[in-house]
């Protein structure tokens, strides 16, 4: 696929360099993830280091903290933020789906706690050049790892067929008017390539009017972001691998931000609970299902009203936690 990109580097806010990220559900994470105050803890989506800093505040000096992220720019900022902590902190660039090799590189035998905080960091949302936001004009990029050679959102929008675009918007955005938006994109690109977030936003706005417009914009942008970063496939294959990398008694906490992610987490946890998969008419279990985890949160936990009013970006968050039992 051709790489399509408009260069915004000269046009966008060059002096701005502070992107404050308020970590979500921090008290709940501290309470449910820490089982040993001298243990080893990893944020598999370290972002700007907010959760790691909060965990450090409750851990002893001998505890060890680790972080990985696909976004080098975020990791650099996390490194700055965490360099004064009393505990040792190691950060590495990588994808959480490669947890086994990352763990070997860190030289850790198993984690006491692992956090997956899905979604976007404030750096990614607020920095127009990253192309995630429909309210800031920027290049239509949306890659978590902006140095990788995966297709950008512009590549997808300009090259996929109308049917493929419809499917992405329907599956990953649950957008009812997917077909019309895909048709609008195909019409527009016959005139001019679609290279910016505002071009795409204007196409959506020309098709979907208030009061549905903002929700549809969010859904279309979410769908493209999920497709660009293969987010759902990555999550599905990573959860069992992460549990493998925990010590017995270690915990995995996952914060998800929409129902597609949460459904995957719930189903992965259900599989790890070892529910018998034998046909219902079998007299005895022959599938050998064995529980690898127990549930720490029977139902997902949500941010309080107070958290949502101080950090509106937390409003769609939900947290599920399991503990490894074998
Ligand atoms: C909501 S932010 C995390 C914020 C972080 N917990 C904090 O407190 O600052 C989500 C992060 O996950 C990262 N990410 C997304 N997919 C990833 C993957 N497959 N592997 C590693 N990091 C990923 C993104 O780059 C982003 O920085």
Describe the structure.
With 326 residues, the protein is α/β, with parallel strands linked by helices. It folds into 2 domains: 26-121 and 232-324, 3-Layer(aba) Sandwich (Rossmann fold), CATH 3.40.50.150; 151-228, Putative methyltransferase TM0872, insert domain (DNA polymerase, domain 1), CATH 1.10.150.170. 41% of the residues lie in helices and 13% in strands. It has helices at 26-33, 50-56, 72-82, 99-106, 122-126, 153-159, 162-173, 178-191, 197-207, 213-228, 231-244, 259-272, 305-310, and strands spanning 40-43, 64-69, 88-93, 111-117, 246-256, 293-295, 318-324. Strand 1, helix 2 and strand 2 form a beta-alpha-beta unit. Helix 7 (162-173) crosses helix 8 (178-191), helix 7 (162-173) crosses helix 10 and helix 11 (231-244) runs parallel beside helix 12 (259-272). The longest helix has 16 residues, at 213-228. It starts with 25 loop residues before the first helix and ends with a strand.
List descriptors.
alpha/beta; Rossmann fold; 13 helices; 2 domains; 7-stranded mixed β-sheet; about 15% strand; binds S-adenosylmethionine; single chain; about 325 residues; 7 strands; about 40% helix; DNA polymerase, domain 1
């Amino acid at each position: 696929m051709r790489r399509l990109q408009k260069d915004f580097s000269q046009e966008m806010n060059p002096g701005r360099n502070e992107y404050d990220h308020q970590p979500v559900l921090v008290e709940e994470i501290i309470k449910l993830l820490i089982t040993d105050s001298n243990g080893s803890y990893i944020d598999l989506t370290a972002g700007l280091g907010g959760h790691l800093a909060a965990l450090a505040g409750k851990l002893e000096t001998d505890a060890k903290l680790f972080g990985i992220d696909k976004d080098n720019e975020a990791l650099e900022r996390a490194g700055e933020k965490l360099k004064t902590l009393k505990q040792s902190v190691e950060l590495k660039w990588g994808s959480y789906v490669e947890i086994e090799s990352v763990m070997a590189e860190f030289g850790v035998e198993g984690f006491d706690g692992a956090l997956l905080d899905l979604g976007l960091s404030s750096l990614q949302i607020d920095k127009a050049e990253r192309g995630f936001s429909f309210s800031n004009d920027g290049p239509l990029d949306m890659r978590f790892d902006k140095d990788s050679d995966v297709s950008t959102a512009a590549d997808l929008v300009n090259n996929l067929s109308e049917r493929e675009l419809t499917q992405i918007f329907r599956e990953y955005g649950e957008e009812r008017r997917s077909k019309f938006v895909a048709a609008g994109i195909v019409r527009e690109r016959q005139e001019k390539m679609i290279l910016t977030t505002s071009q795409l936003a204007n196409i959506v706005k020309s098709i979907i009017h208030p009061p549905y417009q903002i929700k549809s914009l969010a859904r279309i942008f979410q769908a493209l972001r999920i497709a660009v970063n293969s987010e759902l496939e990555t999550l599905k294959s990573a959860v069992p691998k992460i549990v493998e990398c925990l010590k017995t008694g270690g915990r995995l906490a996952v914060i998800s931000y929409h129902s597609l992610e949460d459904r995957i987490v719930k189903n992965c946890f259900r599989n790890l609970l070892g529910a018998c998969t034998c046909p219902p008419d079998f007299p005895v279990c022959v599938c050998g299902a064995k529980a690898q985890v127990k549930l720490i949160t029977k139902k997902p936990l949500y941010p309080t009203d107070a958290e949502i009013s101080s950090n509106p970006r937390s409003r769609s968050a939900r947290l599920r936690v399991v503990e490894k039992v074998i």
